[in-house]
Amino acid sequence: MRKFLLPLLGILLAGAGIWYVAQPAKEEASTQLTVPVRQGEFLMNVIATGELQAKRSEKIAGPSAMRTNQIYQTNITDLVPEGTMVKAGDYVASLDKTELDTKIKEALNEMDKINAQLEATRIDTAIEMRGLRDQLINMRFSMREKDLEVEQSKYEAPMVIQRANIELERAKRDFEQLEMKYALSQEKAQTQINEIMADLRSKQLLLTRLQDLAREFTIMAPKDGMVIYARNWNGKVTAGSQIQAWDPVVAELPDLSEMVSKTYVNEVDISRVRKGQDVTIQVDAFPDNSYQGVVVQVANIGEQLRNYDSKVFEVIIQLNENDSILRPAMTTGNEIITDVLEDKLFIPLEALYKDSITFVYREVDGRPVKQEVLSSWTNENEVVIVQGLAPGDRVYLTAPDNAESLPLKPLATAERQAAESKLFSERSERKKIADEKEARVPKDDQISAGGGDDGGFMIIF
Q1: Residue 357 belongs to a domain with what CATH number?
Q2: What's the pTM value of the predicted model, to 2 decimals?
Q3: Cα dihedral 169, 170, 171, 174 sign
């Protein structure tokens, strides 16, 4: 009997195991997250990354006469380290003189040729004029002979006298023509020499300009300060960089007593940024420090920065504080406070839904209700609810499972109209306050924050 029971028991245990494994797992009860409707201060902001720069700076530029002398670009052969403290007249940089030295040699060769030409012309002129003077002397002797012949022929026959007078007149005419030729030759020779001298002076002026330019290829500091490398489209200007004749800036001497943060704001958010808005500034190099600032400039026209698809607008933020540890080119995180609204109801953006109307899923007695709402201002994470919710309400962060079957609870028409009218008035009042705040910002055309269109930093939204 036992030998039949054991196989039967094994079959039963195997079947039980197969049945257990084949059973579907129990579905976990789905949970719906809800959050309360918050009430209080609603902060509207724009977050942007910027770069510290001096509000005003003195540019250290290469020679301005490069283009005049047809030198359109050159390289920086040496540049003092960035951050070097210099005094007025101290050495800052030197430029490659290869092309300039070639032009100086060419000018010297041209001057040598002109001097040789001048000397040859003077020699030729001297020989020619000496020949003409000898001819004049000989003509004078010939005239004296003809005059004696006329004197001696007065006792001769009339024909002989007439011939003698004719010869004398011919001699006088030849002498006068030779005198005129001598004067014209002398004038011609002087003109040739003047032309050559003019060419020589022109080359001498060119040589002088080139030699003066060569001295300017060694760049000195125009005043005391800290050397900060300039920037252009290709990035930071360093030793080995190429500078152009129309933009020969190699470095800057910033005024560190007043600092600004130069940032760029995406075209989507620029409509909310205005002059006069307060800014909280964090410097990446000193994360424990926080500074306050104000927007002082907002560009009217956007620009396309390299390596970025969307257009951005330049925004200049002035720091209200001065700290000796701050240096140009430090990266800043700027929180631009576009507005602060008091006593508002707001919920997370994830809880707000839109199709033809705006609605939320409100929790009532533990069940979801599809509630129409009137929304308004938003920030990065939240949205203000003007009508449709009350303090203490809770809303679903995700749509409930039966969302499609839930009926909509609409807003009363009168309540909606009253809320919209109040919202319009409040928006107008907020705009008026912003206009007044912007008008109080003094116009400052002397802000020179910049270092070229380097596009080296961008906004983080």
Answers
A1: 2.40.30.170
A2: 0.61
A3: positive
What pLDDT is attached to residue 352? 95
Q: Cα separation of 257 and 224, whole Å?
A: 14
Dist. CA 436–CA 448, nearest whole Å? 26
**In 3-state terms, what secondary structure has residue 424?**
helix
Task: Find the DSSP H helices in 258-363.
Answer: none
Give the chain's domain count. 3
Count CB neighbours of 66 within 10 A: 23
Q: What is the largest CA-CA distance in the chain?
A: 197
The answer to whether the beta carbons of residues 377 and 414 sit under 8 Å apart is no
Range of the domain at 156: 99-215
Same-domain pairing of 392 and 308: yes
Give the tokens for residue 260.
């600004």
> Which range has the worst mean pLDDT, 266-270, 348-352, 450-454?
450-454
CB 264 within 8 A of CB 454: no
CB 306 within 8 A of CB 233: yes
Alpha carbons 372 and 407: distance in angstroms, whole number:
11
The DSSP line for 31-96 is ---EEEPEEEEEEEEEEEEEEEEESSEEEEE--TTTTTTT--EEEEEEEPPTT-EE-TT-EEEEE-
371-402, pLDDT tens digit by residue?
A: 999 999 988 889 999 999 999 899 999 999 88
Rounded mean pLDDT of 102-111? 91
What integer pLDDT is reported at residue 93 of this predicted model? 93
Phi-psi region of 225 (alpha: psi -120 to 50; beta: other; left: phi over 0): left
Whether 288 is covered by a domain: the verdict is yes
Lowest-confidence segment of 35-44, 89-98, 125-134, 202-211 by average pLDDT: 125-134
In a domain, 13, yes or no: no
Distance CA 197, CA 352 (A): 88
